[in-house]
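Open question from group meeting: does this chain pack into something compact, or does most of it stay loose? Before anyone orders reagents, we agreed to write out a predicted structure and look at it together. Recording both the input and the output here so the notebook holds the full record.
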Amino acid sequence: MTPRAVPRTAVVAIGGNALLRGGTHATVAEQVEAARRLASPVVAMADKGWRVVVTHGNGPQVGFIKRRADLAAAVAPELPALGLDMCVADSQGGLGYILATAIAGRLRSLGRADDRVAALITHTVVDAHDEAFSHPTKPIGAFYPEGSARELADLTAGSWRRRASGDGGVWSRRPGRAGP
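Structure tokens returned:
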């Protein structure tokens, strides 16, 4: 019995901003179109014998989801609040769906409908006492002028911080704890 050759594995990391056209607004349709453009090189890697694992960022998307949830809660307080952990899970599911659908569509267009594509939701265990939670540095979501950021801060939980002075005075949301 001949052992099967194990294909080499390539991890392709797609940043959350790679699915956006820039700016503060991004439609799902724009993200789907970006995923379609990214699907061709991913499939090309598989054609060269690579087993491809696609991972993605989600900072802007998590921010959009959190803002939408906070604004909905301000209008309809009876709706359940969404913590940052649920917003991250929402973005993982949505972006996984978008990317997997785009890659599967590209495979189908090449007559390879039987090739398998899967999207997985992951969990990361972190130390709840990590000092980084006291001083988060990575922004989530869009950047806003000070007035808009102050209005949103009145409606939402989490902290808002001004970015470096050379950026025109834009503000961004900084997460507190990511999970329960």
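Observations to bring back to the group:
The beta strands are 9-14, 51-56, 140-145, 159-162, 170-174.
Residues 92 and 121 are 6 Å apart (CA to CA).
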